[in-house]
Write a structure and sequence with these properties.
The structure is a homodimer of 156-residue chains. By secondary structure, the first copy, chain A, is of the alpha+beta class. Chain A is 19% helix and 34% strand. Chain A has a five-stranded antiparallel sheet with strand order 2-4-5-6-3, covered by helices on one side.
Protein backbone atom coordinates (compact mmCIF):
# COMPACT_ATOMS: atom_id res chain seq x y z
CA UNK A 1 0.00 0.00 0.00
CA UNK A 2 1.30 3.45 -0.90
CA UNK A 3 2.40 5.52 2.08
CA UNK A 4 2.05 9.24 2.63
CA UNK A 5 4.82 10.83 4.73
CA UNK A 6 5.00 14.33 6.05
CA UNK A 7 7.79 16.80 6.68
CA UNK A 8 7.41 17.81 10.33
CA UNK A 9 7.40 21.52 11.18
CA UNK A 10 10.92 21.66 12.59
CA UNK A 11 12.40 20.11 9.44
CA UNK A 12 10.69 22.53 7.03
CA UNK A 13 12.85 25.26 5.52
CA UNK A 14 12.15 28.33 3.44
CA UNK A 15 12.85 27.34 -0.15
CA UNK A 16 11.61 23.73 0.15
CA UNK A 17 9.76 22.78 -3.04
CA UNK A 18 7.58 20.02 -4.38
CA UNK A 19 5.21 19.56 -7.31
CA UNK A 20 2.32 17.50 -8.61
CA UNK A 21 1.26 16.99 -12.23
CA UNK A 22 -2.15 15.98 -13.56
CA UNK A 23 -3.96 15.94 -16.89
CA UNK A 24 -7.60 17.09 -17.04
CA UNK A 25 -9.98 14.40 -18.28
CA UNK A 26 -13.64 14.57 -19.25
CA UNK A 27 -14.37 12.39 -16.20
CA UNK A 28 -12.77 15.03 -13.96
CA UNK A 29 -15.22 17.64 -15.29
CA UNK A 30 -18.19 15.37 -14.61
CA UNK A 31 -17.04 14.31 -11.14
CA UNK A 32 -16.25 17.88 -10.13
CA UNK A 33 -19.67 19.06 -11.33
CA UNK A 34 -21.28 16.28 -9.31
CA UNK A 35 -19.37 16.88 -6.09
CA UNK A 36 -19.58 20.69 -6.23
CA UNK A 37 -23.09 20.88 -7.68
CA UNK A 38 -21.88 23.29 -10.38
CA UNK A 39 -23.55 21.98 -13.53
CA UNK A 40 -22.90 25.10 -15.57
CA UNK A 41 -22.74 23.91 -19.22
CA UNK A 42 -19.45 25.75 -19.86
CA UNK A 43 -17.83 22.82 -18.03
CA UNK A 44 -19.97 20.01 -19.43
CA UNK A 45 -21.70 20.68 -22.75
CA UNK A 46 -19.21 20.85 -25.63
CA UNK A 47 -21.82 22.31 -27.97
CA UNK A 48 -22.63 25.13 -25.56
CA UNK A 49 -19.01 25.67 -24.56
CA UNK A 50 -17.95 26.06 -28.20
CA UNK A 51 -20.08 29.24 -28.32
CA UNK A 52 -18.23 30.85 -25.38
CA UNK A 53 -15.01 32.87 -25.35
CA UNK A 54 -13.19 29.67 -24.29
CA UNK A 55 -14.36 27.75 -27.43
CA UNK A 56 -14.45 24.44 -25.51
CA UNK A 57 -15.28 22.98 -22.08
CA UNK A 58 -13.04 24.26 -19.27
CA UNK A 59 -12.27 23.01 -15.79
CA UNK A 60 -13.95 24.51 -12.77
CA UNK A 61 -11.30 26.83 -11.28
CA UNK A 62 -11.75 25.02 -7.97
CA UNK A 63 -10.74 21.74 -9.60
CA UNK A 64 -7.33 23.22 -10.25
CA UNK A 65 -7.34 24.61 -6.71
CA UNK A 66 -8.16 21.13 -5.41
CA UNK A 67 -4.89 19.90 -6.91
CA UNK A 68 -3.05 22.52 -4.81
CA UNK A 69 -4.83 21.17 -1.75
CA UNK A 70 -3.86 17.62 -2.76
CA UNK A 71 -0.20 18.58 -3.20
CA UNK A 72 -0.12 20.26 0.23
CA UNK A 73 -1.85 17.33 1.94
CA UNK A 74 0.13 14.54 0.32
CA UNK A 75 3.56 16.07 -0.45
CA UNK A 76 4.58 19.35 1.20
CA UNK A 77 4.19 19.41 4.16
CA UNK A 78 2.06 16.22 3.80
CA UNK A 79 -0.35 14.44 6.14
CA UNK A 80 -1.24 15.78 9.55
CA UNK A 81 -1.08 19.45 8.59
CA UNK A 82 -3.97 21.83 9.14
CA UNK A 83 -5.03 23.85 6.10
CA UNK A 84 -5.66 27.36 7.40
CA UNK A 85 -6.15 29.38 4.25
CA UNK A 86 -5.62 29.81 0.54
CA UNK A 87 -5.48 32.77 -1.81
CA UNK A 88 -6.26 32.03 -5.45
CA UNK A 89 -6.08 34.03 -8.66
CA UNK A 90 -7.45 32.25 -11.71
CA UNK A 91 -5.45 33.57 -14.64
CA UNK A 92 -6.07 31.17 -17.56
CA UNK A 93 -8.57 28.41 -18.44
CA UNK A 94 -7.68 24.71 -18.25
CA UNK A 95 -9.09 22.52 -21.04
CA UNK A 96 -9.55 18.75 -21.44
CA UNK A 97 -6.14 17.20 -22.13
CA UNK A 98 -4.21 20.09 -20.56
CA UNK A 99 -1.47 18.92 -18.21
CA UNK A 100 -1.10 21.16 -15.20
CA UNK A 101 1.66 21.18 -12.60
CA UNK A 102 1.21 22.51 -9.07
CA UNK A 103 4.44 24.09 -7.86
CA UNK A 104 4.74 24.49 -4.10
CA UNK A 105 7.50 26.47 -2.39
CA UNK A 106 7.82 27.35 1.30
CA UNK A 107 8.20 31.14 1.39
CA UNK A 108 7.81 31.93 5.08
CA UNK A 109 7.97 30.07 8.38
CA UNK A 110 6.50 31.52 11.57
CA UNK A 111 8.40 29.78 14.39
CA UNK A 112 6.17 31.23 17.09
CA UNK A 113 2.80 30.23 15.62
CA UNK A 114 4.28 27.08 13.99
CA UNK A 115 2.81 28.02 10.63
CA UNK A 116 4.18 28.07 7.11
CA UNK A 117 3.27 30.15 4.08
CA UNK A 118 3.52 28.27 0.79
CA UNK A 119 3.64 29.82 -2.67
CA UNK A 120 1.14 27.84 -4.80
CA UNK A 121 1.47 28.30 -8.53
CA UNK A 122 -0.11 26.09 -11.18
CA UNK A 123 1.28 26.11 -14.72
CA UNK A 124 0.07 24.37 -17.86
CA UNK A 125 2.05 22.36 -20.42
CA UNK A 126 3.05 25.63 -22.12
CA UNK A 127 4.54 26.95 -18.85
CA UNK A 128 1.76 29.56 -18.59
CA UNK A 129 0.38 30.26 -15.13
CA UNK A 130 -3.24 29.13 -14.76
CA UNK A 131 -3.60 29.71 -11.00
CA UNK A 132 -1.40 31.62 -8.60
CA UNK A 133 -1.62 32.32 -4.91
CA UNK A 134 -0.42 31.15 -1.55
CA UNK A 135 -1.47 28.83 1.26
CA UNK A 136 -1.27 29.06 5.04
CA UNK A 137 -0.57 25.74 6.73
CA UNK A 138 0.02 24.53 10.27
CA UNK A 139 2.23 21.49 9.60
CA UNK A 140 2.23 18.57 12.03
CA UNK A 141 5.03 18.82 14.60
CA UNK A 142 5.66 15.04 14.68
CA UNK A 143 6.68 12.65 11.87
CA UNK A 144 3.64 10.97 10.35
CA UNK A 145 3.36 8.06 7.92
CA UNK A 146 -0.10 6.99 6.84
CA UNK A 147 -1.47 4.48 4.34
CA UNK A 148 -2.95 6.22 1.33
CA UNK A 149 -6.61 5.21 1.11
CA UNK A 150 -7.60 3.01 -1.83
CA UNK A 151 -10.66 4.45 -3.51
CA UNK A 152 -13.43 2.34 -5.01
CA UNK A 153 -13.83 2.29 -8.79
CA UNK A 154 -16.10 5.02 -10.07
CA UNK A 155 -18.36 4.22 -13.00
CA UNK A 156 -20.12 6.90 -14.99
CA UNK B 1 -34.92 21.15 -17.89
CA UNK B 2 -33.74 23.42 -15.07
CA UNK B 3 -32.48 26.80 -16.21
CA UNK B 4 -29.62 28.85 -14.82
CA UNK B 5 -30.06 32.63 -15.09
CA UNK B 6 -27.55 35.33 -14.34
CA UNK B 7 -27.75 38.82 -12.95
CA UNK B 8 -25.99 41.01 -15.53
CA UNK B 9 -23.32 43.41 -14.31
CA UNK B 10 -25.42 46.59 -14.60
CA UNK B 11 -28.22 45.10 -12.47
CA UNK B 12 -25.93 44.01 -9.61
CA UNK B 13 -25.98 46.13 -6.46
CA UNK B 14 -23.90 46.25 -3.32
CA UNK B 15 -25.85 44.30 -0.72
CA UNK B 16 -27.32 41.71 -3.12
CA UNK B 17 -27.33 38.32 -1.39
CA UNK B 18 -27.91 34.68 -2.21
CA UNK B 19 -27.21 31.35 -0.55
CA UNK B 20 -26.80 27.64 -1.22
CA UNK B 21 -27.21 24.79 1.28
CA UNK B 22 -25.77 21.29 1.09
CA UNK B 23 -25.26 18.32 3.42
CA UNK B 24 -21.93 16.44 3.31
CA UNK B 25 -22.33 12.76 2.40
CA UNK B 26 -19.83 9.92 2.47
CA UNK B 27 -20.06 9.85 -1.32
CA UNK B 28 -18.94 13.49 -1.45
CA UNK B 29 -15.76 12.57 0.45
CA UNK B 30 -15.00 9.72 -1.96
CA UNK B 31 -15.75 11.72 -5.11
CA UNK B 32 -13.71 14.68 -3.91
CA UNK B 33 -10.77 12.41 -3.08
CA UNK B 34 -11.02 10.90 -6.56
CA UNK B 35 -11.25 14.15 -8.46
CA UNK B 36 -8.59 16.00 -6.44
CA UNK B 37 -6.30 13.01 -5.93
CA UNK B 38 -6.16 13.71 -2.18
CA UNK B 39 -6.55 10.26 -0.63
CA UNK B 40 -5.39 11.32 2.82
CA UNK B 41 -7.12 8.88 5.25
CA UNK B 42 -8.37 11.74 7.48
CA UNK B 43 -11.07 12.21 4.80
CA UNK B 44 -11.74 8.54 4.02
CA UNK B 45 -10.81 6.02 6.72
CA UNK B 46 -13.10 6.27 9.74
CA UNK B 47 -10.80 4.10 11.85
CA UNK B 48 -7.79 6.32 11.14
CA UNK B 49 -9.80 9.55 11.41
CA UNK B 50 -11.10 8.57 14.86
CA UNK B 51 -7.49 8.81 16.12
CA UNK B 52 -7.09 12.43 14.94
CA UNK B 53 -8.03 15.67 16.68
CA UNK B 54 -11.20 15.71 14.57
CA UNK B 55 -12.38 12.28 15.88
CA UNK B 56 -14.07 11.43 12.57
CA UNK B 57 -13.69 11.89 8.81
CA UNK B 58 -13.78 15.51 7.65
CA UNK B 59 -14.39 17.15 4.31
CA UNK B 60 -11.51 18.40 2.23
CA UNK B 61 -11.52 22.19 2.77
CA UNK B 62 -11.66 22.64 -0.99
CA UNK B 63 -14.95 20.70 -1.13
CA UNK B 64 -16.52 23.44 0.95
CA UNK B 65 -14.78 26.00 -1.26
CA UNK B 66 -16.24 24.25 -4.32
CA UNK B 67 -19.72 25.01 -2.98
CA UNK B 68 -18.80 28.72 -2.94
CA UNK B 69 -17.75 28.40 -6.57
CA UNK B 70 -21.03 26.61 -7.36
CA UNK B 71 -23.09 29.34 -5.67
CA UNK B 72 -21.26 32.06 -7.60
CA UNK B 73 -21.60 30.23 -10.93
CA UNK B 74 -25.23 29.22 -10.59
CA UNK B 75 -26.83 31.92 -8.41
CA UNK B 76 -24.99 35.23 -7.82
CA UNK B 77 -24.02 36.53 -10.33
CA UNK B 78 -24.71 33.21 -12.15
CA UNK B 79 -23.65 31.86 -15.55
CA UNK B 80 -21.35 33.75 -17.88
CA UNK B 81 -19.25 35.34 -15.15
CA UNK B 82 -15.48 34.97 -15.02
CA UNK B 83 -14.07 33.77 -11.70
CA UNK B 84 -10.99 35.91 -11.10
CA UNK B 85 -9.99 35.03 -7.58
CA UNK B 86 -10.91 33.69 -4.17
CA UNK B 87 -9.57 34.16 -0.67
CA UNK B 88 -10.34 31.35 1.79
CA UNK B 89 -9.85 30.88 5.50
CA UNK B 90 -10.75 27.43 6.79
CA UNK B 91 -11.95 27.96 10.35
CA UNK B 92 -13.77 24.75 11.38
CA UNK B 93 -14.01 21.15 10.12
CA UNK B 94 -17.08 19.85 8.24
CA UNK B 95 -18.16 16.29 9.08
CA UNK B 96 -20.44 13.76 7.35
CA UNK B 97 -24.05 14.83 7.92
CA UNK B 98 -23.15 18.47 8.54
CA UNK B 99 -25.34 20.89 6.61
CA UNK B 100 -23.44 23.91 5.35
CA UNK B 101 -24.80 27.11 3.85
CA UNK B 102 -22.80 29.34 1.52
CA UNK B 103 -23.76 32.98 2.07
CA UNK B 104 -22.88 35.34 -0.75
CA UNK B 105 -23.13 39.12 -0.53
CA UNK B 106 -21.94 41.71 -3.04
CA UNK B 107 -19.66 44.05 -1.07
CA UNK B 108 -18.03 46.13 -3.80
CA UNK B 109 -18.66 46.94 -7.45
CA UNK B 110 -15.93 48.41 -9.67
CA UNK B 111 -17.81 50.19 -12.45
CA UNK B 112 -14.66 50.88 -14.43
CA UNK B 113 -13.26 47.36 -14.50
CA UNK B 114 -16.77 45.81 -14.45
CA UNK B 115 -15.85 43.59 -11.52
CA UNK B 116 -17.58 42.69 -8.29
CA UNK B 117 -16.22 41.63 -4.91
CA UNK B 118 -18.39 39.10 -3.11
CA UNK B 119 -18.21 38.20 0.57
CA UNK B 120 -18.24 34.39 0.74
CA UNK B 121 -18.99 32.91 4.13
CA UNK B 122 -19.95 29.29 4.81
CA UNK B 123 -21.72 28.40 8.07
CA UNK B 124 -22.74 25.03 9.48
CA UNK B 125 -26.05 23.94 11.01
CA UNK B 126 -24.96 25.48 14.33
CA UNK B 127 -24.39 28.87 12.64
CA UNK B 128 -20.64 28.56 13.15
CA UNK B 129 -18.40 29.80 10.34
CA UNK B 130 -16.49 26.98 8.63
CA UNK B 131 -15.01 29.00 5.74
CA UNK B 132 -14.77 32.73 5.27
CA UNK B 133 -13.31 34.87 2.53
CA UNK B 134 -14.18 36.80 -0.58
CA UNK B 135 -14.36 36.31 -4.32
CA UNK B 136 -13.51 38.53 -7.29
CA UNK B 137 -15.84 38.09 -10.25
CA UNK B 138 -16.28 39.66 -13.66
CA UNK B 139 -20.03 39.15 -14.18
CA UNK B 140 -21.42 38.86 -17.70
CA UNK B 141 -22.68 42.18 -19.06
CA UNK B 142 -25.62 40.63 -20.94
CA UNK B 143 -28.56 38.56 -19.63
CA UNK B 144 -27.86 34.84 -19.94
CA UNK B 145 -30.15 31.84 -19.50
CA UNK B 146 -28.63 28.39 -19.94
CA UNK B 147 -29.89 24.84 -19.49
CA UNK B 148 -28.35 23.22 -16.44
CA UNK B 149 -26.47 20.14 -17.62
CA UNK B 150 -27.92 16.79 -16.56
CA UNK B 151 -25.14 14.64 -15.11
CA UNK B 152 -24.91 10.89 -15.59
CA UNK B 153 -25.52 8.62 -12.60
CA UNK B 154 -22.37 7.94 -10.63
CA UNK B 155 -21.96 4.47 -9.12
CA UNK B 156 -19.39 3.70 -6.46
Amino acid sequence: MKKLKNIPFDQLQVGDCDSLTRTLSEQDLILFAKVSGDTNPVHLDENFASSTMFKTRIAHGMWTASLISCALATKLPGPGGIYLGQELKFTRPVKIGDTVTVQLKIIEIDQEKKRATVSTEVINQNKKIVVKGKAEIMPATESITVDEYTLPEINL
